[in-house]
Amino acid sequence: MVRTTAVATCTTDIHLIKTAAWENAIGKVIGHESVGVVEKVGSEVKDFKPGDRVVIPSAGTDWHTPMAQRGEAKYYQHNNPYFSDDPMVQGNFSEYVRAIDADMRLAHIPDNVTDIQAIMVPDMVATGFTGIERMNVQFGDTVLILGIGPVGLMGVAAASLRGAARIIAVGSRPNTIELAKQYGATDIVDYKKGDILTQVMELTNNKPVDSVLIASGGNPDEIYTTAMKSVKFGGTVACVSIFFDDENVTLQLDVWCQGRNRDKSVIKPVIVI
Ligand SMILES: [Zn+2]
Fold first, then answer.
1. Rounded to the nearest whole angstrom, what is the distance from the C-alpha of residue 179 to the centroid of ligand 1?
2. Domain check: are 135 and 239 in the same one?
3. Residues 6+ away with beta carbon under 8 Å from 17
4. Which domain holds residue 206?
5. How far is the C-alpha of 125 from the C-alpha of 168, rounded, in Å?
6. pLDDT band of 23, cuts 50, 70, 90
7. Can you give the pTM of this predicted structure?
8. pLDDT digits (tens, 9 = 90+) for 213-250
């Protein structure tokens, strides 16, 4: 049982309130990003004790499933209030949270990290870093980050840590542009100053990028098309933005069959979500 000390609101929470898109979330406490102090522990908990400061991960993965252990954690979120049909699995916007499977899910917060700093970890850091991890960014890569809200900014930081040589960040707000530069962005593209693809290709001298992280809101058709047209043959596009069942994406066909390489070969970017 964790006593909540800080929570963060996610666009997922807001979308759910507006649309009730996920049936299992209806009637439940919302929220999936929180940190707090352990109040009491069950008899089988080994790694945590009352008084410990902890992060509760947002995903709610059931790590007992072989599929989750094999790398498909996203699809086995049995402890996530929005996906679980168990009424006992509730969201985190409450004074106390029952953290299921504590040893496999909670993380200790170091003494020199404040609660407000740690609240970035359960979703913003974890999501941005997971996207870059799935993109398999290598030393020297050129990486395009579409969107520099909190998750995109963490994507910039992660790409930098993975050794990307060039990190092109797309955004428009001065404060997030400044942060993107601090986290390692080498180039900034302001989508309000013109077409994103044109600006990116000017920067790279028409060379497609190695991988793209989609971390923005906006029109999914335009976002996906820009991503697919920017990436090289065999490159990777990862999407960490959330789209719902009632949304469709229309792609220009040439992003699949010819794309920027114009070499008549079939472009097969890998999309990981
Ligand atoms: Zn979230």
1. 20
2. yes
3. 30
4. 125-272
5. 19
6. confident
7. 0.86
8. 999 988 888 898 899 889 988 889 999 987 766 677 88
